[in-house]
Structures are given as C-alpha cells and as structure tokens.
Amino acid sequence: MRNLLLRSVALGLLLAPCCGSADDKVAHNAVIAVVDFDYTDGSGEMRDQSQEHAARLAAFMTALRNDLSARANLRVVAPSCSPEPCAPAGPRDDLLAAARAAGASIVLVGGVHKTSTLVQWANVEAIDAATGRILFHKLFSFRGDNDEAWRRAESFIAGEIVALPPS
Asked: CA 80, CA 102: separation in Å to the nearest integer?
C-alpha cells in the first residue's frame, strides 16, 4: 500500500506541472460538473472512522460546490451517471458524456487519501468535458483529521481552483 501511495504521489507531482497551459485554465463564468471525490484511509488506525470520514467528505463536497459558485461565478452542475452515482474512478468517457449532458464544459474529479493519523492528500483534476484533456492536476496535502482541518483544506483548494487565470 505504501509503494502504491508513493507511486501515486510521484505521478501526481510529475503530472501537475505538465498538464495544461495558461490557455487551458478554468474559465470563470463556466459550467463545471463537480463529481463527489473518492476517499481511502490507508492510515492503519485501529478505530473505524468510516462514518466520520463519509460525513466530512460530504461536507467538504458541499462546501467546495458552494465556494466555486460563490467565488468564481462558476455554475456548478451535478452530472447524472448510470449507474448512480458518478465516480472519479468510473469509465472516463461515461463521466465526460454525463457532464456534457448536464451542460458542463469542465469536470472536476478527485480523491482524498489518509496516509497517517495526521496526513491526508487531496488529488484534484479538472478535465475538458469536450476533449477529455486534463486542464490541471494538483496534489494537495493537509494536516489533521477533524472538522476544522477538512474545512481549511476545502477552503484552500477552492481558492486555488478559482485563482487560476481564466481561459
């Protein structure tokens, strides 16, 4: 599991600067489909925290959608996949088709992985719904596993997304 995580982190670091250019960034006033992120816990902690993590991830996704709408004048839509719900790990072509059907030009996908008691990684990708091309790919780390840590991480990630120059 640790080797898989290290490879994922290395791949994320390699992809982050290469994907997209200044002309490919998220356009303000665009329509963006935000897909619920995946969550994995590889920390090995003894206590089952799956319900807490599910609640925090749900709050994170709600806040991210709200922040993107409010901060960047993005119209956020929810794609409808079959079978429900849409998932970042699902077939990419199906996800892009569902986003286009919802009127989106951009699809935001991602996941959070808890690696230890104090460290989590959020992997975020914006994809052009028409072409499937990755507009940006960023890997964020955040410390802590409580409501406040998740709120700070979401706020920072939303700020990073809306700070991208418009296309």
From this structure: 7
